[in-house]
Amino acid sequence: MKNRLVVLGGGESGVGTAILGKNKGFEVFVSDFGKIKDTYKQVLIHHEIEWEEGGHTEAKILSATTVMKSPGIPETAPIVKKLKEAGVRVISEIEFASAYTEATIVGITGSNGKTTTATLTYELLKQGGLSVALGGNIGKSFAEQVSESTLEAQETGEEKYKNFVLELSSFQLDGIETFAPHIALLLNLSPDHLDRYDYKYENYIASKFRIAMNQTEDDYFIYDADDVEIAKWLEKNPVKSHKLPFSVTKELKEGAYIKNNEIIITIQNTNLAMPIASLGIKGQHNQKNAMAASTVAHLLKIRKATIRECLESFQGVEHRLEKVLKINNVVYINDSKATNVNATFYALDSMETPTVWIVGGVDKGNNYSELLALVNEKVKAIVCLGVDNQKILNAFGNIVDKMVETQSMEQAIKAAYRLAERGDTVLLSPACASFDLFENYEDRGRQFKEAVRHL
């Protein structure tokens, strides 16, 4: 009897898992409740993998030995409930794929900064000469890259990638059982995706800490020592791995901290120091991202000179405080990746000129109160961009004189253009998910850049 793998969701992680499953001898079936993109259909057809879209055939799904659920599908989906009741194993792509690689895994999670830190870590390891791939919640799926890596191992006896840097969302971590990264990073915690966690912050925090649950004494856990919620959790729930904190407020015996405007990293009596001023990415949150990534590089024995050069040249990632254009002396900044309040807090905090702020989308249980002081100080006008903007209007109506509602990116940019004067900044930092008007945050960011270029 062949092992039967059913994949729920025909997107990047689903199709990658299907390819890996097929290569490992599973009988594979992909089922998507919605539509599968043509590019993914072609891949499934090429690999001769059976698929369906526009609904689930229950008999075919319930006969699975293992089900990989794509991260976007909630636990409350009827088909997932039926699988759980039937006692079928339901896991994430990360759990499925990690079983098939011997590579060193660096897993990065947190409410904010994951993409920047994962990309920077990947660059540090690549420039340091390691064979490394970047995956998870970013770029090409982890499972498909494991498939490539193991196929090469069959031919040459060596895996294509010796290291994986994975950006991990809480949804991906919810579906793990044995997954244990050798190096785990928890960058920070702030309320996010609470709609998927019964609106309980503690459920979301527990989900993030799953990244360390299977680690042993031989593994490493890198975390923000300034984060109150992380400290509270660690007091009650000790982790087995070797802890390496980073901080911008206190000196640490071991880990990374700031002293005399230098980042200092100390691990097992070896030191690395680098001036903050020479970092390619600006802002205190990016100092933390740089500390976390450099700690990984230091652990994996990347040369100090390489680490310094890489930190100086790294300019950040697309859709994260990305300067797009300057028109009539107004700077347009794309921060579409800010899908929660905390990310937008960092963005507003880094503004140095009067700001026209474009905000809105699908609210995930946001609490806007922590932005009030910053909005009062920095924001001259708000452009709402969402199907339902009531919560934003209620939160900021009393402190910002000019508020405009728009329903498309083109409308939003035209409104912002009218409101902005010479020396101002127009900032897209939505604090919300994008699914009401856009495919995803990348689509939203690209539409922003397109609309700005057409002004």
TrEMBL record:
GO cellular component, one term: cytoplasm
Enzyme Commission identifier(s): 6.3.2.9
Residues that bind ATP: G110, S111, N112, G113, K114, T115, T116
Subcellular location: Cytoplasm
Catalytic reactions of this protein: UDP-N-acetyl-alpha-D-muramoyl-L-alanine + D-glutamate + ATP = UDP-N-acetyl-alpha-D-muramoyl-L-alanyl-D-glutamate + ADP + phosphate + H(+)
Domain of life: Bacteria
Domain spans labelled Mur ligase C-terminal: 319-432
Domain Mur ligase central residue range list: 108-297
InterPro entries, per the entry: Mur-like_cat_sf, Mur_ligase_C, Mur_ligase_C_dom_sf, Mur_ligase_cen, MurD
Keywords: ATP-binding, Cell cycle, Cell division, Cell shape, Cell wall biogenesis/degradation, Cytoplasm, Ligase, Nucleotide-binding, Peptidoglycan synthesis
One annotated GO biological process: regulation of cell shape
Sequence intervals crossing the membrane: none
GO-annotated molecular function: ATP binding; UDP-N-acetylmuramoylalanine-D-glutamate ligase activity
Metabolic or biological pathway, per its Swiss-Prot or TrEMBL entry: Cell wall biogenesis; peptidoglycan biosynthesis
Function, in words: Cell wall formation. Catalyzes the addition of glutamate to the nucleotide precursor UDP-N-acetylmuramoyl-L-alanine (UMA).
Family: Belongs to the MurCDEF family.
UniProt name for this protein: UDP-N-acetylmuramoylalanine--D-glutamate ligase
Source organism: Ulvibacter litoralis
Gene name, Swiss-Prot/TrEMBL: murD
